[in-house]
What we know:
Layout lengths: L4 H8 L6 E2 L15 E4 L16 E4 L9 E4 L5 E5 L8 E5 L6 E2 L2 H13 L3 E6 L13 H15 L1 H4 L6 E6 L1 H11 L21 E5 L12 H8 L5 H6 L13 E6 L8 H12 L4 E6 L18 H11 L3
Parallel strand pairs: 6-8, 6-9, 9-10, 10-11, 11-12
Antiparallel strand pairs: 1-3, 2-5, 3-4, 4-7, 5-8
Helix pairs in contact: 3-5
Amino acid sequence: MNVDRRSVLASAAALGAVSALPGFAQAAIPLPAGFERMPLWPATPPGGAGVRVTEVSALRYPELGTDTLYQDHVVTPTLTIVRAARPNGAALLLIPGGGYRRVSTGLEGYVIARRFAAAGYTCFVLSYRMPADGWTAGADTPLQDAQRGLRLARSLAAREKFDPARVGVIGFSAGGHLAAWLSTRAPRKTYAPIDAVDRQPLGVAAAALMYPVVTLRDPFAHAGSREQLLGATPAADRVAAYSMEDGVMPVPPPVFLAHAFDDRTVPYQNSLLMAAALRAQGGAVECQLYEAGGHGFGIGAKTPAASGWSDAYFTFLHRHGV
């Protein structure tokens, strides 16, 4: 059976949860062999006093296992390590999408990580909290987890045998928005440092933004992501502050973008806006636009027109020393 992220997200709301436990709920679904999961934070994540949601992990197709895992209302964000059999000395932080409503951990995390681990990259799959679940940081909550995830991954460089200067990030859909936020804007403090991990730097060597949410302005905004981040009727200054084409730092890291012209969920103009903003700041940019692929094409047989993006990103990474 072939599955893709679009079918998972379309029917996820109608599914019964495979597990529905408070806190570390995804423990009820075993990890694939060889994967290692660790909590992002040593205790409760910051700003959780008002959080009342229950974390849920579920499989769209149980017979396909964790390749179709998704998570709702994450309260225990995690980092999952997918190791390379023959490490090349570089690492990647993977940020799955889900419209800032859930995390598509399987199809945009584990599946992609296997592909890149096979090419030698040590991969870290991020599970992150949602902005509308009552965390004190609100819209900045996912960025807290992305920053902590990058720092935690980098702190493991000696143990996992990669160069901490050769760390990239890949984000998908709303995860692409978060990856852009993490990699192309000047780092800012989103939480009080709590341990030695937080002394790690936040820069990345390269980024990939896959069919990313970029702008929160109409007519090209993904309305669902905008509402989850900022509410139903956000003020214009808030929309501007969270539109990633604004605020790109001077000389950002090299960025690879990929989008399909027939994406009916996040218009391809999001990638064009980001490419232009990066170029305006002196960034190195590659933008792959595919004739077909829709939204959430990931890696799979259902989207042959867009299936070459991973090889193109490998070439891009090698060109930039990652």
